Amino acid sequence: MSVSAHDPDDTAASGRSGRRPGQSGTREAILDAARTRFAEVGFDKASIRSIASTAGVDPALVHHYFGTKQELLSAVVNLPVDTDVIRARIAAAPVDGLGETIVRTVIGVWDSPIGASAIAAFRAILGGGDAALVRSFVLEVILRDVRDRVDSPPGSGYARVALAVAQMGGVLMARKIIGIEPIVSMSADELARLVGPSLQRYLTGDLDLPPADA
């Protein structure tokens, strides 16, 4: 949603934060502040209040424009994908079917008409030195619910999901960037059948993981 010079929210915010009445660019200021805070301290430690303070607005305006902190991070990364649909498909899968579901869902996005744009956006973010944003987006938005579901023993969820992400990163590299056959020519179902069990082992298998605080 764009903000005009006469946006009433800008006027309201100016009374609380000292910003000039009618100042435009509130949404963009919040995005810039969020990008800075996420990069500086990470997703968990970047509070809505601190982002609002950096942007010079009331915290209520952050929620007004972007909703939750996860939605704000999605807006910062600005990928041309519907993260709610992706998360819903993965959430609908039983725990013992997460591996194949994640492979099938992610490859479905890569192979869709918006896949090239999404991959290009990821590469642009990484090329700009904002790898922390991509990491937070994948682990805190796309797969945050999965982390909670596979957190057994307690504290292992992050490592499990990180291993799964590394596996999928390799598949992406082989399929879309380097172009290794037969991975390029395989269907999403074939790759899900072949790669899914590896992801499943990372997510729910008996792994000799280091302590969570290591």
UniProtKB/TrEMBL annotation:
Residue span(s) of domain HTH tetR-type: 24-84
Annotated Gene3D superfamilies: Homeodomain-like, Tetracycline Repressor, domain 2
Pfam families in the cross-refs: TetR_C_16, TetR_N
Positions of the DNA-binding region: 47-66
Region (Disordered): 1-26
Ranges of Low complexity composition bias in the record: 14-26
Keywords associated with the record: DNA-binding
Protein name per its UniProtKB record: TetR family transcriptional regulator
Species of origin: Nocardia jiangxiensis
Lineage, broadest ranks: Bacteria, Bacillati, Actinomycetota, Actinomycetes, Mycobacteriales
